[in-house]
Amino acid sequence: MSQKIKVGIVGGTGYTGVELLRLLALHPNVQLHAITSRKEEGMKVAEMFPNLRGKVDLAFSTPENAALTECDVVFFATPHGVAMAQAQELLDAGVKVIDLAADFRLQDTAVFEKWYKMPHGCPDILKQSTYGLVEINREKIAQSKVIGNPGCYPTTVILGLAPVLEKRLVEIDHIVADCKSGVSGAGRKAEVGTLFSEASDNFKAYGVSGHRHHPEISEQLSKLAGAEVGLLFVPHLVPMIRGMLSTIYVKIKPDALATDFQKLYEERYANEQFIDVMPAGSLPETRSVRASNQLRIALHRPGNGDTLVIVVVQDNLVKGAAGQAVQNMNVLFGLAENTGLNHVAVLP
């Protein structure tokens, strides 16, 4: 693709926004056209994010002055509800939309309104949108104009379970997903629970009685399984900046006990460059994916019994958010999926 993709970012002052900028600034097929923030209008992006000094020359502008309709694609790194208020105008101008919030993740508007406490502003556009998990919906994404970028927790759980659900090899009435995330998953805002003195040297569960990602995970798992799943999902906050580890427990069906699950996963993801099925018995660490778009999976079967334990790690800001959004953009515009995403994880 010789012509550059003209990109706009709405809401570029958060952690997913700066990750988008970090990835797109060096993307060989992208021209950064506009980035918006009402509060920071006129401020140079590199003044807020010094890691982008010399790489991004844009200043923040208001959405009204950003000429977003001149873009080829607009990313929304905004709170829930923003993308659906602006999507129609952009679509009318021929602009593709990738939303990193939840506006286009859940197809059932009643479920969306229950969990996000707001009416859905464009159910007609929602029906045309695609859930942006490339490893599951690649062909559909390529033909879409609106992408609902998956949540971070759902990415790990859905990709962790896809091979066994597609083959109907496990019981689906009681799936347990025990998930942990770094503090950046809470966003770049002032909250007591994410203050250093509160989050450091501490480890806690939250959202046990209900979390917004639960219906998203359940909807996608049910599609894969061909029937409604029973899911117990418990998220935890870990005292680290970035990274996510999900441990998933499922019961193997009696007639599937002889299955070679390691081989199943290796074959299912053999052609997926961002999914690494690790050798049998591996224990993946969050640091092995830090700042990369890689997701690593390891399988365990304690005592060779009827429980399959699936361990999944990813960077919540990259494969769990901005990197996945860029991967979606690459598919939308017919680029190689790894374009601009070949970053090796950062160690130590």
TrEMBL record:
EC number: 1.2.1.38
Matching CDD domains: AGPR_1_C (cd23934), AGPR_1_N (cd17895)
GO biological process, one term: L-arginine biosynthetic process
Pathway annotation from the record: Amino-acid biosynthesis; L-arginine biosynthesis; N(2)-acetyl-L-ornithine from L-glutamate: step 3/4
Main localization (coarse): cytoplasm
Alphabetized UniProt keyword annotations: Amino-acid biosynthesis, Arginine biosynthesis, Cytoplasm, NADP, Oxidoreductase
Catalytic residues of the enzyme: 152
Superkingdom assignment: Bacteria
Catalytic reaction(s) noted: N-acetyl-L-glutamate 5-semialdehyde + phosphate + NADP(+) = N-acetyl-L-glutamyl 5-phosphate + NADPH + H(+)
Semialdehyde dehydrogenase NAD-binding domain ranges (all copies): 6-144
UniProt GO cellular component terms: cytoplasm
Amino-acid biosynthesis is among the record's keywords: yes
InterPro entries linked to this entry: AGPR, AGPR_AS, AGPR_dimerisation_dom, AGPR_type-1, NAD(P)-bd_dom_sf, Semialdehyde_DH_NAD-bd
A single MF term (Gene Ontology): N-acetyl-gamma-glutamyl-phosphate reductase activity
UniProt subcellular location: Cytoplasm
Cited HAMAP family: ArgC_type1 (MF_00150)
Family under the similarity heading: Belongs to the NAGSA dehydrogenase family. Type 1 subfamily.
Function comment: Catalyzes the NADPH-dependent reduction of N-acetyl-5-glutamyl phosphate to yield N-acetyl-L-glutamate 5-semialdehyde.
PANTHER family: N-ACETYL-GAMMA-GLUTAMYL-PHOSPHATE REDUCTASE, CHLOROPLASTIC-RELATED, N-ACETYL-GAMMA-GLUTAMYL-PHOSPHATE REDUCTASE, CHLOROPLASTIC-RELATED-RELATED
Protein name: N-acetyl-gamma-glutamyl-phosphate reductase
Annotated organism of origin: Pelistega indica
Species classification: Bacteria, Pseudomonadati, Pseudomonadota, Betaproteobacteria, Burkholderiales
Gene encoding the protein: argC
